[in-house]
Amino acid sequence: MKLSYRWGIIAIVCIFAVFYLLPKKNNIKLGLDLKGGMHVVLGVEVDKAVDARLSNLVNQLRKDLNSEKIKLTYIKKNKDRIVVALGGNEYNKAVNFIKKNYPFLEETTTSKDNILEFKLSEKEITNIKTYAIEQALQIVRNRIDAFGVSEPSIQKQGSDQILVQLPGITDPERAIDLIGKTAQLEFYLVDEDVSMNDAVTGNVPFDDVVLYQKVVDKTSGQVVNTIPYVLKAEPVLTGEYLSDAEVRISPQFNEPYVMIRFDSAGAKLFEEITSNNVGKRLAIVLDNNVYSAPVIREAIAGGEAQITGSFTMDEARDLAIVLRAGSLPAPVKILENRTVGPSLGKDSIKSGINASIVGFLLVILFMVVYYRLAGIFADIALLLNFILILSVMSMFKATLTLPGIAGLILTVGMAVDANVLIDERIREEILLGRTVVNAIEAGYDRAMSAILDSNITTLIAAIVLFQFGTGPVKGFAVTLSIGLLASLFTAIFVTKTLFQSFYYSGKRKSISI
């Protein structure tokens, strides 16, 4: 390749590097260990996802068996089983229907006469648990994206855990509440035939459930009272039909509330429920907490409803976020919660920068003293390599972590290692009596295989670290990978161009190396 072409390529690369390092273009984000923030490990209670699946199956089976005109005495969930009590001698009809339409339900040996008992197959239980983790991962990611955290790290850890890292978070308690809220929205009819006293004493029918409304003092934010509600045990509508949720301000009380909208199927169900229960109260329940229980005055068409509850604006916004993102398929619990202060991040940055500068200067000094002009060429390549790494990270909006800085320092060492191999080979060729140009060409040719072998094997290791590592390890792998690719360009292409510019004219009969 002509020397002018080589310099043209180097000039284009340098312009590219400078462009992406301009203040307006610099998109390098600081990781959790440098910027400060939250490190949270969530445990997904997958067994409760299985339990919820069984509860849903009970409701679905009841509807399907009734539509098939199969008489039922009752159908209920008993621990990890579904028990179906038939009202007539229809054992074969019921069993055949369930096995055909619910192949993942297995009949147990305790089934007899008109009492059928089913359990979920092991394969179905595994599928439910796997899906619960994947869905929880996506929902947590959607909530955090809506919350507005820059460069979050959200990933699966182990079989039933989710690792969440939120750099720069300023309100950790609010973030935890947002992440951990199950957000299971349900609508229940209030059982008007049971008194408040019966609710308090727990004297309620078997097909009812008692849930509470929390009364919060607006000044202190503390719960000052709880109001019991006796509700029909089965919800008449759930949040799975929800299509949108947004915050609005009540013109009457000047308080925020959440307006929810159902999809077409949900709107039809909601209109049907309200038209059939005019004069009754419909409780709006989120995560087993009654937010309100208004009286149905008339059929409500259009698929819209309001959730009120003396919210602050932040509470209303967060509630809208979790409703839009969807409910978690199973509750999550906080297994680990660590907050990294920004002061620690500043100390880490300072230490990392100091280490980089000291290492960089020592390498430069060694190369100049030991290899003279050839060492200066290597130092120029090393400086360009450093700039290229930062510019590529900026282009891809990569996150810089403390292990990433370690990867950067390691790359400096590996980049100069390639030039040490080349310079030593050139020295050997000079001692054998070759001319300057021949010695340079032979030095690059003979060092090339060793340089490629060492860099490619390290690059493979970096790719494996990125694929299977967690946040900090990924940061190390990213900077190491970018640095290796950049060093191949600078240590081989750039230094050889410098050698060609100084020595290939034939005017210099000796080489400074």
Question: What labels describe this entry?
Answer:
513 residues, alpha+beta, Multidrug efflux transporter AcrB transmembrane fold, Hypothetical Protein, Haloacid Dehalogenase-like Hydrolase, Chain: A, domain 2, Gyrase A, domain 2, 4-stranded antiparallel β-sheet, 13 helices, 19 strands, 53% helix, elongated
Describe, in plain words, how this protein is organized in 3D:
This protein is α+β, with helices and mostly antiparallel strands and 513 residues long. The chain folds into three domains: 3-36 and 343-503, Multidrug efflux transporter AcrB transmembrane domain (Multidrug efflux transporter AcrB transmembrane fold), CATH 1.20.1640.10; 48-124, Hypothetical Protein, Haloacid Dehalogenase-like Hydrolase, Chain: A, domain 2 (2-Layer Sandwich), CATH 3.30.1240; 181-339, Gyrase A, domain 2 (2-Layer Sandwich). It contains 13 helices and 19 strands. The strands form six sheets. Strands 7-8-2-18 form a four-stranded antiparallel sheet. Strands 3-4-6-5 form a four-stranded antiparallel sheet. A four-stranded antiparallel sheet has the order 12-9-15-16, with helices on one face. β13 (242-249) and β14 (256-262) form a beta hairpin. The model has no long low-confidence stretch (mean pLDDT 85).
Can you give me a brief rundown of this structure?
The chain is α+β, with helices and mostly antiparallel strands and 513 residues long. Helix content is 53%, strand content 21%. The chain has three domains: 3-36 and 343-503, Multidrug efflux transporter AcrB transmembrane domain (Multidrug efflux transporter AcrB transmembrane fold); 48-124, Hypothetical Protein, Haloacid Dehalogenase-like Hydrolase, Chain: A, domain 2, CATH 3.30.1240; 181-339, Gyrase A, domain 2.
